[in-house]
Amino acid sequence: MLYNIFIDPFVQMVQMPDLLVQTLWEGLVSGVLYALIALGFVLIFKASGVFNFAQGIMVVFSALTLVGFYAKFSSWGFSGHAAAFLALLLAAGVMLVLAMLVERVVLRPLVTQPDIILFMATFGITYVLIGFGEIVFGGDPKQMIANELFLPSGSVDIEMLGGLVSLQKIDIAAAVIASLMIVGLALFFQKTRIGRALRAVADSHKAALSVGISLNQIWVIVWFAAGLVALVTGIMWGARSDVSFALEIVALKALPVLVLGGFTSVPGAIVGGLIIGVGEKLGEFYWGPLLGGGIESWLAYVIALVFLLYRPQGLFGDKIIERI
C-alpha cells in the first residue's frame, strides 16, 4: 500500500513522461482560469476589504447573458459573428450596470457597517442573480457560442518524449487570453492613476477620502473590472463545457486559490491558481485510482486547509500583527 502511494505514481511519471506532460498541461490551463477567477475576488477585496461571494455566480450570469443576447440577435436575423460580438458588448454593458447597482444599492448604504455585514450582502447578491438568471434564462444548460466568437476548435497533436501529447486548441486559446487579461489588469492597476487610487483605497478608506479619491467611483470601476473578468472566465469555461449554474461550483475553486496566494495579492492569485490547477490534475490522474476517483473535487480544499494551518496569510499575503 505504501509503495502504491509514495513510489508507484512517480515510477509512472518516469516511465510515461508524455502522459505526465499531458497532465501538467491540463493542470496549467485549469490553473490559469482559476487564477483569472481569483483575480476578480482580489480586485474587490483590495478596494473594499469585502470578500465578494457573488463572484462565482457573476461568472455564470455573465455567460448566460452573452448566450441569451446572442439568441435574441440571431432571431432578429443578424449573422452569427455579428450577433456574437453585439451580444459580447451588451453583456459587458450589463456587467457595468450591475456594478453601478451594487455600488448604489448595496455598498453605499452599508459603507459604515462592519465587514461581516457587507460580506453577507454579497450572499444576497448571489441569490438575487441566481433567481433573476433562472427567471430570464431558465435552468437548462446552454451552449457557449465559441465558434461565433472565433474561438478555435479541434486539437494539436505533438510527438514528444516517445509519445503523443494532445493539446486542445480551445485550451491554448483560453490559456493565452486569460494570461493576457491577467497581465493587462495587473499593469492597469499597477501603473495607472486609477490603480494608484485603488491601492490608496485598499490601504485606508479615510486616507483616500482625505485626498479626494471617490470611493463610489473606485467601487464601480473595480466591480466592473471583476464583471469583465467573470465574463471572460464564463466564455472560456463555457467553451470547454456547457453554460449552466453548475459553473458556480467551478468558480468557487478560486477560494483555495486565494488561501494559497493571499486575498490581496495579484501575483498570489496567479501562483495559487497554478498550484491548485496542476495539483488537482496530478492527484486525480496518479492517486485518484487508489481512492476511487473524485480527488479533483476536494483536493484543492485540502491543500488550502494545510496552508491555513501553517501560513494563514498565504504565500504573498501580508502578515498582520495586532498589538494590544
Automatic annotation (TrEMBL):
Q: Cellular component GO terms, alphabetically? A: plasma membrane
Q: Where in the cell is it found?
A: Cell membrane
Q: Which residues form a coiled coil?
A: none
Tell me the leader sequence span.
none
Q: Its topology with respect to the membrane?
A: Multi-pass membrane protein
Show the CDD domains listed in the entry. TM_PBP1_LivH_like (cd06582)
Q: Which domain of life is it from?
A: Bacteria
User: Which terms does the UniProt entry file under GO BP?
Assistant: amino acid transport
Q: Could you give a GO molecular-function term held by this entry? A: transmembrane transporter activity
Q: Which UniProt keywords apply?
A: Amino-acid transport, Cell membrane, Membrane, Transmembrane, Transmembrane helix, Transport
- Its transmembrane ranges are 20-43, 50-71, 83-102, 114-137, 170-189, 218-237, 257-278, 290-310
Which protein family is it in? Answer: Belongs to the binding-protein-dependent transport system permease family. LivHM subfamily.
The name of this protein is: Amino acid/amide ABC transporter membrane protein 1 (HAAT family)
Q: Which organism is it from?
A: Aquamicrobium defluvii
